[in-house]
Structures are given as structure tokens and as C-alpha cells.
Amino acid sequence: MSELHRRNVVRVGIAYTVFAWLLLQVTDVVMENIGAPDWVMQALLFLLLLGLLPALIFAWVFELTPEGIKRESEIAEGVSVVHQTRRKLDTLIIATLVVVVAYLFWEGRLRQPGADAPLASSTQSQQDVTGEEKLTGMAALRQQTEAAARAAERVNSNADSDGKTSIAVLPFVNLSSDPEQEYFSDGISEELLNVLAQIPALRVAARTSSFQFKGDNRDIGEIADLLKVGHVLEGSVRKAGTRLRITAQLIEAEGGFHLWSETYDRELEDIFAIQDDISRAIADALTAELGLGTELSPGASKATANTAAYEAFLKGRALVNQRGNQAITAGVGELERAVRLDPNYAPARAQLAIGIALLAAGSGSYGDLTVAEVNERAGEQIAAAEALDNNFAELWAARAILARTNFDEQGHLNYSERALALRPNYADALNWRVNALNSLGLAEQAVQAREELLQIDPLSVVGRMNAVTFIAISGEPERALAIARSLAAQSPWASHVAQARAYRSQGQSDRQMEQLLLAYALDSRDMLVNFDISNVFSNSGLYEESVRIDRKVRPWALLNAARFEEAEQALRRELLADPGALEITTSLAKSIYLQGRYAEAVELWRQTLIETHYGEAVYSNGGEFGTARLVFSLRQLGEEEAASKQFEVLEQLLASRGAAGFTDHWWYFGQTIVAILKGDAAAGLEALLQADAKGFDALDLLNEPILDAIRTEPAFEIVRQNVAGRATDNREAVLTLICQNNPVPDYWRPLEATCSANGP
């Protein structure tokens, strides 16, 4: 055999190896996308390895000639055709290498980042990480050095305005044929969120926002823009028999470049242990990739559940996060099922307590459960969760919302912050911290906390709902309306509620009512909406409509209609049924105060005092007027010292709201009250004129006894006429809507007398 022939045999071996490698890479992409079982790739690898030896033997024995394939021994000595074979083999090898280079370029730079089944990078084939294996020696040193270099290059360019690198973890795609594996895919994503959220230098988009893109194939850059992050982590989970393959990849949003990719294979034994194991491995890799070395600690309960219980927990929590009576009630049902299926799953019990507390009765809540009912049912679940695991984020969140139900605003804030210490991107805790800061009179801090919520969880349903009101009264009505409309894709009900709030700030009662009725058609049992509808009717002078929207709102509708004796009787009945509800107590005190019985009103108001940052104040839902009336009543009773103490708190609460930018017509009306209580009637009248200029339209509040000090002033009469004119305009606009342009005639209709008595 000639030397040239032996070299051709070597060329055949090289060509076979290169072609086999390329075939394996392409096949892996195809198999991944069609969800083929792992044994297909294993069988192909075995066949290709098996075929190498026959290929070499064949090349050794035969030679390619112009006349076809001949045995090497049959070729006459001195007749050289080997160079022809060499050229053909060289051409084949070069062509195959060109394809390999093109493939590697596509894999590393051009592959679509939104693909359902992300592939591992080419470096992964050098070292496949399993539960027991770690990179060692030179390979580990090389990987660490490369990661450090990449991190050094990006550490400044990747930082956001707050100095933090930002990332969103998208729900991992379930590539298994078994739909029940969906819960495991979601669990991997959520555990990653919990782990990554512990890194101080990393801002992680909240689960409620990132999970909105489940099954969404839009461009990664667009998703990153919506979530306000610079990086996106996506992945897939595939089950084949007793084996799991989890693939993850990190993408830089700006250029769509893949920064890191890895595949993990595990035996399917303890699913929750696998979730924790894989999440920690990925988190460790990402912190090295992004230059964020830090010690990680879990923010979630380590309790585990069976598959059915975990699935019910996920469904229940998602429903509760949608808000509204209908969604929360359905969510509570799913969470109760989760607890029945696995009584030892602590997160399900804590989340169930949260759902129950959100169904408490009140104008700012969603249901009709009494305080006693909430304490019994939610308290039972919290106690059971504590016995299983006494320090995880959902448990502190449950304690926070239960504190709110019991009007303990300091506890509400403290427990929310404890939950955030464990999970900094916990949407509910972020939202409740905002609410608690407002209730404590820390309005400026509440504004900052609200912006943080919108930054971390830009697609939060309840976060955006609540933000709309404050953004609108801060002088940004267009931004408020845009945020409200953006909710429609996730929750049409929440979008209607938020739009109603935005229109209310602009004094557009008809548009407000339109949106509220659309929300009512979707969820007629929701108390938050029903209270708002009743208030719009009352402000429009349509009292008969205001009392019939829901039985539970009737006492407040009577109060707004100045039917004080009827309101008092109705509120006393409500208080007997729910003696722990401060909102009922303060409303009863108001009805008695407006009848001139100051001593009785003071006795009730003293029962409702809650601690604020500035001292005790009357519990209120959206204003400081209860405290102002307490001050006035105490003075009527000669209790000047007690009145002065309450007046100081009132002044600081209003000053805090003003410093935060909440200077709408309600704030100016509050300034009117404060000035008069100070004895400065001229300043009070000036503040009332400013409230009028801001669109003040609450005609009933002009009957407030505190205003008697300026009631005879000519300017007061001018304001009264302006307010009466706006009230008339609002009434006509609302009548036109409900009588001629009713948006939901199949769900609600006005009384026939309403339209006939107020015809065009």
C-alpha cells in the first residue's frame, strides 16, 4: 500500500468524524423541537460510532478510480489515482467544515432568542454538568476566566439607572408530551425567581409580570422592554421516561445575543429537590456570568407538595392575583383543594389565608366576610402554615394582609417588609407596603414605594390598579389612563375599574360610570365596584339608584342622601353583624355627628383611632375628614387639650399628602377645614376657592358644620353655585349614559322612574 493511500484512509476518518458531528448537532435541534425521546439520539450516536470502523476498513481495502470503486490491490503499480481521491476527500472535508462554521455562527449569534427549545452552547459538549459532576482542572479554570472577563466587560454597560443589573425569568417551556409536567416547568421558573431575587445587585422582574408571557412567542427584545429589564432567562423542560432534561439560556435583550447556555440531565426522583438543585446551579452560573458574586439564600418555603396539590396552588394563586370577587372566590376554592390534597403544603395554606382576607367586607375590598370570619378562617390557615414552616415570604404576606383586616397598619407595614426581606420582588408585599405607608401618613415614602413596585412588577394587576388613582391626582391623568387601559390584556375587569378611577380624577362622572358598569357586568358581586357605583349615583343626586345596586352598600347610600336617621339604623344593624369593622363604626359616628349629637360621635370615633406616623387618628378610607370632625366635636364638648392633640396629627397628615404631590381638590378642601379649625376663616375661604378651581363637586360636603364659620361669605355662595352647577352637569351626563347609552342592558337597567322623571 502506498503512502498516499494511507493518507487518504486518514482523510476518510476525518471526513466521517466531521460529518457525524454535524449530523448529531442538526439531529439534536430537530429532535428537541419535535419532542423526541432521548433514546433516539442515543441510538444515532451508537450507530455512528459503530459505523466508523467499517468506513475505515472500506477505505483501506478499496480505492476510488475514474472507472469506479476497485480494490486497492487491483490497481496496477505505478498507476496513481490516489491524488484524485485525495482532492475529492479534501473538497468534501472543506465543504463540511464550512457548514460546521455556519452552524456554530447561527448557534451563537443568529438563533432566534424566543425559540421554545433553547439549545446548549457548543462549549457544553466539552463538559456536561450532572448532579454529581463539577468542572475540574483546566476546563474549570478556563470557564471561570472567560466568565470573569465577560463580566468585567459588561458590569457597567448592563447596569440600570439604579445601579443594578436587571433580569426577567420567563416560564420554562414544557416540551414533554405529558401536560401534567407543566407544574414542574413553572416550579423551576419560580424557584429561579426566588433564588435570584436574593441578590442585592440584581433586580428581578416579579413573577406576576414575567409569567404573563407564558406561551407568548413575541420577540425577546419586546418582552424585555415591557418588563424593563436588560436580560432574559428562558428555558425548557423535557421528560423522557424517568429522565428529565432542563435547558436554560441567558439572553442580552439589547442585541438578542446568547450570553450563556447549559443543559442539565436528572433522574426523576424527588421533583422538588431537582427544582432546588437546578435552580441553584443556574443561579450560580448566572451570578458568575454577570459578575454578581454573592451568597444566595432561599426566599420560599422548602415544603414540598404532591403534584395535584401544587397544581391547585398555582391555579389558586393566579386567580387571587387577578383580583375581583369572582376571581378571588374561585382562587380560594382552588387553594382549599390544594390544602385538602396535601395538608402539609405550607405555601398553599398561607396563600389561602391571603385569599380569604381579601374577601373581607368594606368599600376598599372585594367581598362581604366579617372581620370575625376572616380572623377565624385566615387565622387557622396561618397557624397551620406556621407549624410547618415559620419563616417564608407567603407566610409574612398573609400576616400582613390579616393585620390590615384588623386595622393594624404598623403591623401591615412591618409584615410586608419581612416578606420583602425574604423575596424582594414579591408583588403583593410591594403593593401592601405602599398601602400601609399611605395609611400611616407617609405619603412621600409611599410614592417611592409605588414607583419601585411599577419598576419591579410593571405588569402587576393590583399594583397598576392602585397606582392609577395616585398618578391621576398627582397631575398625570394621561399616564394614569394609559396604565389603566394596559390592564385589559390581563384582566378586563381590573382595566375597567382602573379606567373609572382615572376618569373620576378628571371629573368625568359619565365615563367613570360607564367603566364601572362594564366591570359590574363582569363581576356583579364585587364590593369594591358596587360601592363606587353607589357613590357615583349619590354624587349625581340619583339616590334611589344608589341604594339598590347592592344590599351591603345601602347604609352608605342613605348616609350620602342625607337620610341620617335611616342611615344610623342601617349602620347599627351592620355593626351588630360585624362589630370589628372600623369602617362601619366611623360611618355610624358620621351619621350621628351630622345629627348634632357630638358626645355620642366622639365615643364612637375614639374606638376607631389607629396609630399613624404622627400619632393616633380616626380610621378613614381615603381622607382625614373623620379626624377633623373629631377635633370639631371635642371642641364643642370643651375638651380643648384632646382636640389640640388630634389637630396636630391632622395637620401633619395633610402636609404629608401635599408634599407627595397629592394636591387635588380634596386636598384643598382639607386645607379649608384645617384653616377654619385654626380660626383663620379668610385662609379657609381662599383654600375653598382653590378647591373650586380644581373642580370640587361634592355638593353634600358643603353642608359640613365646620364650614358654618364662612357660610355667610359671598364667596362661599359663589363656590356653592359652581359646585351645584357641576353636580347638575354630572347628573345629566350620568342620566344620558344609563337611560340612552346603557353599556350593559343585559346585566343592569335603571329604574323606569329614573329615566321618565329626568327625561330629555
Taking the alpha carbons of the first and last residues, their distance comes to 110 Å
Q: Largest beta sheet, briefly?
A: 6 strands, mixed
**Which structural class do the helices and strands define?**
alpha/beta
Low-pLDDT segments: 78-82, 108-159
Mean pLDDT: 81
* Rough outline: elongated
- Specify the number of helices: 32
Helix content: 55-70%
Radius of gyration: 34 Å
- Beta percentage is 5-15%
The number of strands is 10
Summarize the structure.
The protein has 760 residues and is an alpha/beta fold.
Walk me through this protein's architecture.
The strands form 3 sheets. Strands 3, 4, 5, 6, 7 and 8 form a 6-stranded mixed β-sheet that branches. A two-stranded antiparallel ribbon has the order 1-2. A two-stranded antiparallel ribbon has the order 9-10. With 760 residues, the chain is of the alpha/beta class. A hairpin with a 2-residue loop joins β1 and β2. α1 packs parallel to α3, α9 runs parallel beside α11 (346-358) and α17 runs parallel beside α19. The protein is elongated, with a radius of gyration of 34 Å.
Provide the fold topology.
Elements: H1 3-34, H2 38-61, E1 62-65, E2 68-71, H3 82-110, H4 137-154, E3 165-169, E4 173-174, H5 182-196, E5 202-204, H6 207-210, H7 220-227, E6 231-240, E7 243-252, E8 257-267, H8 271-289, H9 307-322, H10 325-341, H11 346-358, H12 371-388, H13 393-405, H14 409-422, H15 427-439, H16 443-456, H17 461-473, H18 477-486, H19 492-505, H20 509-522, H21 527-539, H22 543-546, H23 554-560, H24 564-577, H25 582-593, H26 598-607, E9 609-612, E10 615-618, H27 625-636, H28 640-659, H29 665-678, H30 681-693, H31 714-740, H32 752-757
Parallel strand pairs: 3-5, 3-6, 4-6
Antiparallel strand pairs: 1-2, 6-7, 7-8, 9-10
Helix pairs in contact: 1-2, 1-3, 5-8, 9-10, 9-11, 10-11, 11-12, 11-13, 12-13, 13-14, 13-15, 14-15, 15-16, 16-17, 17-18, 17-19, 18-19, 19-20, 20-21, 20-31, 21-23, 23-24, 24-25, 25-26, 26-27, 27-28, 27-29, 28-29, 29-30, 30-31
